């Protein structure tokens, strides 16, 4: 018996590549071809509701004029475009050359059927799995010399902790083995604070020490070829922070020439003013924690990702080069966060969380009144507060500053298209919809949802339905892929720039478009048999959207709210 291959999930990137290949062809096949622009510039995917009314992909007139001497698409090329086939390629229904360029329309009923009839599971996870171990190091949580408390944590440092948590969830879903550094003491105030935000940071016994590993690091630095000898004094020193400097065997302070480390080992992107660093006790403790975390990795390829604030970047580069000088050869990348500004106020992380929680509880009481009591509502307010904080601090490009409104007289609206509350509210609306449908089934109003193969998906004609599939369900897997791809990129220097804001922006945009559609379309119609096909097609679409919400929220370590 032959093995029948499962069809590949539909993807945007393979479709654009296939369209580009069809348009470019081979030089000898297409008379009048002048030049060959880069493939990714030949086409772009439409996303606005206005443009999606008449096209899904467009090759602009400027591109056609670049490709062909007269700007006219030869019939043979047009035929290739319209008969497009391939793994992961969206089916083409038609196309024509208009004033704006060559526009192509997807066979939408076929796309709906392909994505939704099978349950859409392949669209809710990364398109490929990666290998390797990533140790996510958060300098803000390291002892200095004691474990930081929530009242010591600045908002900029809180941003790095949330980003570290988000990156861990994203990378783990892509197949990476992920561990976190440092290990924090069990039952400490900082662990209670992080758990209130939904962050499950690893813990160890409060009396856990790493003296043996610290001694090992100390000896490695003493014998490092980058150690500065007495005769090399006079070079510029750059202080290594901390409270007590380590001494060499001759009683002198232990100094490492960090500039030589990155120059001689060909490491790009490090600050040329690093100079010579005096090794301090805090630095050795930090290195021991890193060494322990990487030693516990069970795979050969290990990357240390330091998630730090711009204020602490220089200090973290020192730590990275000290670790290298001690003999560590792991790849190290730095994810640097911009500052968090609070005009007119100065709040610690603990005060900020307390403020947002109080505002969330007040907003809930104003909307739901006396219902807001008991453990269920405590859990809801906790999740909604966590969502608010995460979206406020993670929705901005990580290198850019974040400005927060922390005026106490302000509040958190449970309405309006912005932030975590709006996202969680719309996720809850989907759960409410399916609860209503299930009650209708129990009352005998509606039959059970049939198999997707029994439905005619051409019933999905409302423009919002295609927008939800084409802009969100289909592209989501490729969105999840991006963080791993950026981490794998070689030659980019010490800093790594990852589009960490994209999941938050994706969810806010999805919520706006879903809310618009849901307010406009009555999904659960009259219980009349001739209306059931369209209702079931819509339920298939919205069930896939519900799972999309869950998947995206999971990458933020946020559980869905099922009822509001």
TrEMBL record:
SUPFAM superfamilies: Anticodon-binding domain of a subclass of class I aminoacyl-tRNA synthetases. GO terms for biological process: arginyl-tRNA aminoacylation; tRNA C3-cytosine methylation. Residues 204-249 are annotated as: Disordered. It holds the Pfam family DALR_1. InterPro entries: DALR_anticod-bd, DALRD3, tRNAsynth_Ia_anticodon-bd. Residues 423-564 form the DALR anticodon binding domain. It comes from the Eukaryota. Residues 208-235 have a biased composition (Basic and acidic residues). GO terms for molecular function: arginine-tRNA ligase activity; ATP binding; tRNA binding. This is DALR anticodon binding domain-containing protein. It comes from Salarias fasciatus. The lineage of its organism: Eukaryota, Metazoa, Chordata, Craniata, Vertebrata.
